[in-house]
Amino acid sequence: MELIARLDQQLQSLDERSLRRTRRVADTPCSPCVQVDGRPMLAFCSNDYLGLAAHPRLIEALREGATKYGVGSGASHLISGHSRAHAVLEERLAEFMSPHLESARALYFCTGYMANLAMLTALAAGDADAEIFSESLNHASLIDGARLSRATVTVYPHGDTPVLATMLAASTAATKLVVTDSVFSMDGDMAPLPALLALCEQHGAWLVVDDAHGFGTLGANGRGALEHFNLRSQNLVYMGTLGKAAGVGGAFVAAHASVIESIVQRARTYIYTTAAAPALAHALLSSLDIIKGAIGRERRAHLQVLIAQLQQGLTLRRWQRMPSETAIQPLLIGENDETMRLAAALYAQGLWVPGIRPPTVPVGTARLRVTLSAAHTEQDVAQLITALNQLESESWYG
Questions:
Q1: Residue 128 pLDDT
Q2: What is the pLDDT at residue 1?
Q3: E strand segments, 12-129
Q4: What pLDDT does residue 398 have?
Q5: Helix crossing, 294-313 with 378-393: angle to 10°?
Q6: In terms of Cα–Cα distance, which of 284, 191, 272 is closest to 238?
Q7: Cα(376)–Cα(21) distance, rounded to whole angstroms?
Q8: Could you give the count of Cα atoms lying within 13 Å of 54 in the half-sphere of its Cβ?
Q9: Which pLDDT does position 395 carry in this prediction?
Q10: What is the Cβ-side half-sphere exposure of residue 209, based on CA atoms within 13 angstroms?
Q11: Which numeric CATH code is attached to 56-292?
Q12: Could you state, in order of their start, the residue ranges of all structural domains in the chain?
């Protein structure tokens, strides 16, 4: 009982600091209009940026994939779990990203977390003289991957390329990796990828880019941050997730064929796990077609309209809209308690917007994380704008 009491005390401490996380149960498919815990809600909290998670074409493709390949893969990719669906998806992804990667090859993973662990541990594997230069606001998966790599880890300030340049010039490591998110998941701003790539090419370093929130949404054809900045280099190692804008699940790493083969041979999160269901890979072929086709272009354009509408409509004085031109539009509130009371007030009005607190963000920077989807309408966004402007003008938070 003493062990349980210690845990209960720790949980109580989370409550006292407004830091306990809770789950809500969605009863309907992912969409802006969702049934949550039995009540209708207008959601601004998913990463379904193009509104594909419940698209009829993907639903049909998943059904077709299950009919063709069954439900499970049965083993890891290197045993017997690598299906034709996986192979075709990887070929299509490599072709899709080839304008930005020399001798491109792609590798499919169950999750983006596993992909990031794989990239960093494989690229630094067997090299006692490796150094990773990690952006200070990187996703937890990149931080954990850097730790597991056993390389020396040096953290550089957010977006500070002059400081990074000094660090790279001073490094004597044989293998150097600069590791960054493209779109920062809690801030919504973008890394200065052109400047980072120039530094990596100057200093013989890999540039490892986690484009979880850019793939599908950025670039004329949805190729993400690399297309947005028109980058191409053999120094690039790229990760894109397939459960956000692509609407299904999993992730992929794309890079020079030698990089991908090294990951296949070295990455424990690839070697020692059962392959994702082939039906998911089959469904993603349709998702990729949508992303690069007319529907994808239309939805990316509509998303930009909604982003501009939200930015222009908010008349905030006390809270701060953080600078972002992406689908992630955070509102900086500050204290945990006020943030969660604001999220609860919105929820009471039928608006589901998550409050984000430490340790996900630094202490004193709790925020609402508004995420927009191409499946939202302008009326949906207008409803959110009205609610936020009204709540800030009231004294309920005092």
A1: 74
A2: 79
A3: 33-36, 39-43, 104-109
A4: 47
A5: 20
A6: 191
A7: 26
A8: 11
A9: 57
A10: 34
A11: 3.40.640.10
A12: 21-50+294-393, 56-292
